[in-house]
Amino acid sequence: MKNDDTADEQAIVPPTYTAYGTVNLCGNKLINVRIWFRFQNHIPIMVGRGERGPRVWVSVPTDDPKNWRSVVVDNEVVMSPVPPFGAVSLIEDFTQREIQIGVGGFPVFKCAQTEKDELTVSLIDLSSLRLGIKGNIDGGLYVGPTHMSKNIFENVQTAIGIG
User: Fold this and answer.
1) Residue burial 130-144, b: 16+ Cβ < 10 Å; e: rest
2) CA–CA distance from 17 to each of 8, 55, 153 (Å)?
3) Is 46 within a domain?
4) What is the span of the domain harbouring residue 100?
5) CA-CA distances (angstroms) from residue 70 to 1, 102, 106?
6) N or C: which end of the chain has fewer CB within 10 A?
7) Longest dimension (CA), the chain
8) Is residue 57 part of a domain?
9) 146 occurs within a structural domain
10) Across the chain, what does the average pLDDT equal?
11) Secondary structure percentages of the chain, helix, strand, coil, to 5
12) pLDDT tens string 112-157
């Protein structure tokens, strides 16, 4: 794992994406961080600010790890089911400014906008999508076997780069 703020121009960021100023990512604080995770030139999940709450993009590796496919684009499920994992669901709660994503009937992501420029991620489990990222608000974040809790990433393009 590495913290890398130099190679992000190669990663594709949606033109409508606007990062939150502060993100509580499973007990870790990201301040002015544009990309949470990057696997070589691929970004598995992005959550940006929107008028009515968070806007989510999710992509996953195919059988060939060099090729990735979009699963969620700007809060719209564009690939379901995700073989062999099952159907993808996305629930938006505009009152709570909350997003929940499920795969195969199991929750894999939950976040809420707590302030205009602040987001809290209370659950992330992308292991069912062939990605070794999981965590929750109480137990911290795991990227592969590495546990992270109470860390601060500030003023970097990418918090965690792999590969």
Assistant:
1) ebebbbbbeebbbbe
2) 14, 8, 20
3) yes
4) 8-162
5) 23, 15, 19
6) C
7) 40
8) yes
9) yes
10) 90
11) 5, 55, 45
12) 999 999 999 999 999 888 899 999 999 999 999 999 999 999 999 9
